Each structure stands twice: as C-alpha cells, then as structure tokens.
Amino acid sequence: MIPFRTNRYANGDRLEIAGCPVRLRVDRRARRVSLRLDQARREVVVTAPSARKLSDAIAFARERAGWMNEVLAELPQGRPLHAGETIEVLGRPCRLERAPSRREAGLFEEGEGLVCRAYGEEASFGRAAVRLLKAHAERVLRERTAAHVATLGVAMAEVKLT
C-alpha cells in the first residue's frame, strides 16, 4: 500500500519557517535546491528544480533557519514617506508635498533644494513619491553616464535603476 501524502506544495506557495516568510518556487532550469533573499519583499525564496522536490526544498530551508533569520534581521527597516517631511536627494534637501492633482505632480527645483509633489493619500502618496524620485535618479544617472562615456570615448552603457 502506498502512503497518502497530505502535504502537497506548489509553485508560489508561501509559508513560514522558523518565523521567516518563505516563498516556494519551481524552476526547471535549476540543478539543485537553493535559497536566496528577496530584499524587496523581505522574504526567502526557496527554489527547486521540480514540484516533486519542493518537500526537499522545505527541509533544506528548515536546516538553514538560522541563516534565514540572520539575513532578514540585517535588512534595514524601510519607512513610508509622508507629505511634509524633508529628505536628502543627491546631497540636497527635498521637501515632500501633496499635489492637488496628478497633472501637478513632479519634482521641481526650489532655491537650494528640491520639492517633490506627489499625488495620493497615505501609502499611495509614498509610492508616488518613490516613483518620482526613482525617475529623477535615473535621469541623473543617464546624464552622468553620458558625460563619462563621452570623456572616455566608449559606447554608452544601458542604465537601469532597480
């Protein structure tokens, strides 16, 4: 008689191991079970080469629970951005303000600093401000890369911001 397994795991399942959030992933190109940290989601991703190996992947993650807790504890704590506060952008003060409409949102020069006007309430304000600041950072990085490329006389490299 074949024993019936009740613990079936699937690609994308989320669970908690030793207090750490863990996401299961199946990647047919993987040769072995592996662990990696997803910093943006603050979780550990356990990758297995097939769905059959997900149980082995979970056992592997349980063995590495100490490492998982250690790396998650080392991650800096993020904090939401709020209208009215001032942050530093490229060494200059940047005041965060709520824009009355999406058309009036943007990053503007003001005196010695910047003003970031983002549209939204609560968490959506913070996400909108981050999008504006990332777009500004990407523009600055492209300009600086172009200047250095011209000086060095080499081809322009692709600039991406994550």
In a nutshell, what does this entry contain?
This protein is an alpha/beta fold. The protein is built from three helices and eight strands.
Number of helices: 3
Largest β sheet strand count, sense and barrel closure: 4 strands, mixed
Could you estimate the helical fraction of the residues in percent? 25-40%
Record field, number of beta strands: 8
Q: What is the straight-line distance between the termini?
A: 52 Å
Low-confidence stretches: none
Features:
162 residues, 4-stranded mixed β-sheet, single chain, alpha/beta, 3 helices
Describe this structure as you would to a colleague.
This protein has three helices and eight strands. The chain has helices spanning 54-63, 65-74, 122-152, and strands spanning 14-17, 20-26, 34-38, 43-48, 86-89, 92-98, 106-110, 113-118. The protein has a four-stranded mixed sheet with strand order 1-2-4-3. A four-stranded mixed sheet has the order 5-6-8-7, covered by helices on one side. The longest helix is centred in the C-terminal third of the chain and has 31 residues, at 122-152. The mean pLDDT is 90.
